[in-house]
Design a protein that fits this description.
The complex is a heterodimer. By secondary structure, chain A is α+β, with helices and mostly antiparallel strands. Chain A contains 13 helices and 18 strands. In chain A, the strands form 5 sheets. In chain A, strands 8-9-10-1-11-16-12-15 form an 8-stranded mixed beta sheet. In chain B, α3 runs antiparallel to α8 and α9 packs antiparallel against α10. Chain B is elongated and about 75 Å long. Classes of the chains: A alpha+beta, B mainly alpha.
């Protein structure tokens, strides 16, 4: 038993040093290695959830009719242009000529029909519901596809920039988990489970040829190992640093460039709006007043990130800085709690067992203690236990998790979502935003953001920063992470 | 110099007792006084180096390291006491029963014992944590249950030895009940062995709690725990190694202390060594 104990300590020490990828970087100037924290379970995002698969493959191996650029705008990709009908239900896409899939098949309007309809029939992940609004797809000509929606929807075109908009060939979907076939600038070469994925430039690509002919996507479970890989020349780029306190060492080193931008990841203190005492707006407001979000950001994220005050990141067209709606004001918090007739309340803060969440929970608990709210922190195994108990069974008072999906403010229109927020006004506004003109959409979305902030439907602690560290020779990295893809197409070198 | 004289001069027991005493002292003191509130978060003083006010500096939450180590000592001792308590209270009677009861019962108890022994303590604790929710209590009970076999084995072998002695044979011939023999003759004679085992198991329990808290299956935040201090320092290892070194040394002191204490006590109490003293 004693030997077992000693081995354990040793194993803990050794694993801290060696977790992660072991492939060494070849000194090929046409190759680039990029380090990531989360590895895809397989390569099929039509049947497997998880952000890591589209991060590696979307825009790089797979392309859609449209894509999201670094500023959050929807721009043409496989569609040269498109028109929207008067009633906003019919989209006519003119496709790019001379596009082929990596298996040699030409890309035509037939493939658009096949891919969009396949989302409804063959996909199994929950995001497939994004295509429910599609009524039918007509093949008007070989390079002219017409998509008819059941009702007008601004969200649909945006969703076409995500993985559900990816274009597949009927001859290329036999083994999606291992052999992806797309039209993108890269093709999938090899995969070493637990270690890396290798992509190679697609020789028959229709667009600008990428600057690097070989891309190594390397995976490191341990953030320290990921940092060390860049420091020790094992990789050229860290896609996103998750331990903000370690960023200083890269900023201080002239070998590296550090880019800091925004993500879609709102670190959210969620309230159970459907259950006492947090069904009382005054209590939620009190908690929101009691928490110094800047201090949370300072401790959890070394002060890096953005104060947002609602569920909207700055890259969305309807962003407004709402961080001042409930400023840090403990006296006001106590007054509101007294008004609600609550003294010495105890709340369960059931958080994902992830470093940022457990860290944020301790700051929140300490600050709520100052206004007389007793918080017990319960870290839950993530994802399994957290998803079951908090997300599915709604067994919680408060929780902390990053909400990483783009435009996930729409979840406040779903009363069955885990935070149980039920507002007919927000639901009505969401419908208006989806069916209205783009101007109307922006206006309605702004009002939703303000409404949920006023209601203190949740407390948006801060927006997680996107921090990329790279060797100075690497150019063309985008500061913000707004799409589902780690877009390799813009990369260059000095 | 004779072996016996060398043995007496071995400082194992003294050093062990001093180290354990240090941990106990820290824990007791923490009830009366700590330099700062160990759980109060203050972004203004985060990641300070050692100063007069903060002897070992502060962590990324601006919490004082000394205060956390002091209160963490409580958690460490608490876990050790309960885990060893569970193991001794269940394991000792089982071992004595296996030695004194009918042969089939003894075999059965010891085979079940082997089964539990084959199950890694940490795995059991992680399983408990997943099923009943991670907390100090589930960790302690799981570690305790995993430690039962070592107590049962030692109690059994000690009992078998005692049972073959002449005074026990005499007691049996005189018609004393099994329970009376167990109580009057067996327990006092195996007590020394069990105390030694307790000390060694204590060290293992301390290490297991640290490992579990490190993995997020042990003590819940914000209650200070040395293992969680280590875990929270992990991402800062390259920038602020002090945050890992301080709790690391604390764990090393406690584990070393209980191990040395166990070794020292064995030299004193083990009947097999008694003749050489």
């Amino acid at each position: 038993m004693r030997v077992f104990g000693a081995t354990l300590v040793l194993a803990m020490l050794v694993s801290a040093c060696s977790a992660g990828s072991s492939v060494s970087v070849p000194a090929d100037p046409d190759a680039i290695s990029i380090g990531f924290a989360a590895e895809p379970a397989n390569l099929d995002f039509t049947r497997t959830d998880g952000a890591a698969i589209p991060q590696a493959l979307l825009y790089n191996v797979y392309e859609g009719l449209v894509k999201l650029d670094a500023d959050g705008r929807v721009v043409p990709l496989l569609a040269r242009e498109w028109t929207v009908s008067e009633d906003r239900r019919t989209y006519d896409f003119q496709l790019r000529p001379d596009v082929t899939f990596s298996n040699g098949q030409p890309f035509t309007a037939q493939d658009v029909k096949f891919s969009v309809e396949r989302v409804k029939t063959a996909w199994t992940i929950s995001l497939k519901s994004k295509m429910d609004v599609v009524d039918r797809v007509d093949v008007v000509g070989p390079l002219h596809a017409r998509v008819v929606l059941k009702r007008p929807s601004n969200n649909w075109l945006f969703d076409m920039t995500t993985r559900v908009g990816a274009m597949f060939s009927p001859s290329g979907v036999a083994d999606l988990a291992n052999t992806p076939v797309g039209t993108g600038p890269y093709t999938f070469a090899t995969r070493k489970r637990g270690d890396s994925i290798v992509l190679r430039a697609n020789p028959s690509y229709w667009g600008r040829r990428p600057a690097y002919t070989t891309v190594y996507l390397k995976y490191y479970k341990d953030p320290t190992a990921l940092n060390n890989a860049l420091l020790s020349n094992g990789i050229d780029v860290i896609s996103s640093i998750t331990t903000p306190d370690s960023i200083g060492q890269f900023e201080a080193d002239t070998r590296f460039t550090v880019l800091q931008g925004t993500t879609n990841a709102e670190v959210t203190l969620s309230f159970n709006n459907a259950k006492a005492p947090l069904n009382d707006k005054r209590v939620r407001q009190a908690l929101t007043y009691a928490i110094d979000r800047k201090a949370v950001m300072a401790t959890v994220s070394a002060g890096r990130g953005t104060q947002i005050g609602s569920m909207v990141p700055p890259t969305d067209p309807w962003y407004e800085d709402l961080s001042g709606v409930h400023p840090h004001d403990p006296a006001r918090a106590k007054a509101l709690l007294a008004e609600a007739g609550l003294r010495n309340i105890s709340l369960r803060l059931r958080v994902a067992n992830l470093p940022y969440a457990v860290s944020a929970a301790q700051v929140v608990a300490s600050q709520l203690a100052d206004v007389g709210v007793n918080v017990s922190i319960e870290p839950l195994d993530f994802p399994a236990v957290w998803l079951k108990q908090v997300f599915t069974d709604h067994d919680f008072d408060m929780s902390i998790v990053q909400h990483v999906e783009a435009r996930d403010i729409v979840t406040f229109g779903n009363p069955k979502y885990y935070w149980g927020y039920d507002s007919p006004k927000v639901r009505e506004l969401l419908t208006q935003a989806d069916v209205g003109t783009p101007e109307k959409q922006v206006q309605a979305m702004k009002e939703i953001a303000r409404t949920i902030a006023d209601d203190a439907a949740a407390d948006w602690l801060f927006l997680f920063p996107n921090v990329i560290a790279a060797k100075t020779k690497v150019t063309g990295l985008s500061r913000n992470q707004v799409s589902e893809s780690f877009d390799l197409t813009g990369l260059g070198r000095r | 110099m004779t072996t016996a004289a060398m043995k007496r001069r071995t400082p194992t027991l003294t050093v062990g007792a001093i180290l354990v005493g240090l941990v106990v002292l820290l824990a007791v003191m923490s009830f009366l006084w700590t330099p700062h509130d160990p759980t109060r978060v203050d972004a203004a003083v985060r990641l300070l180096g050692p100063t007069g006010d903060y002897l070992f500096g502060t962590d990324k939450f601006g919490r004082d390291l000394v205060s956390q180590i002091m209160v963490g000592a409580r958690t460490t001792l608490y876990v050790g006491v309960v885990a060893v308590g569970v193991a001794a209270v269940i394991g000792t009677p089982l071992g004595i029963l296996a030695a004194m009861g009918p042969r089939w019962l003894g075999e059965f108890v010891m085979r079940v014992n082997d089964l539990v022994l084959a199950f890694p303590a940490l795995l059991l604790a992680i399983m408990f944590g997943a099923v009943f929710g991670a907390s100090t209590l589930t960790a302690m009970i799981a570690i305790g249950i995993a430690t039962v076999p070592s107590f049962a084995r030692i109690a059994r072998s000690g009992t078998l030895q005692v049972m073959s002695t002449e005074y026990v044979l005499a007691a049996r011939a005189a018609g004393r009940s099994r329970f009376a023999i167990a109580h009057r003759h067996v327990l006092p004679n195996v007590a020394g062995l069990l105390i030694v085992q307790s000390s060694v198991s204590f060290a293992i329990a301390v290490l297991a709690e640290a490992a579990l808290s490190f993995l997020g299956f042990g003590t819940r935040p914000p209650t200070p725990s040395w293992g969680r201090m280590l875990q929270e320092s992990q991402e800062l290892l390259a920038v602020q190694p002090r945050l890992a070194i301080v709790p690391g040394i604390a764990i090393a002191i406690a584990v070393l202390g209980f191990n040395l204490l166990g070794d020292g006590l064995r030299d004193r109490l083990d009947p097999r060594l008694a003749g050489r003293r």
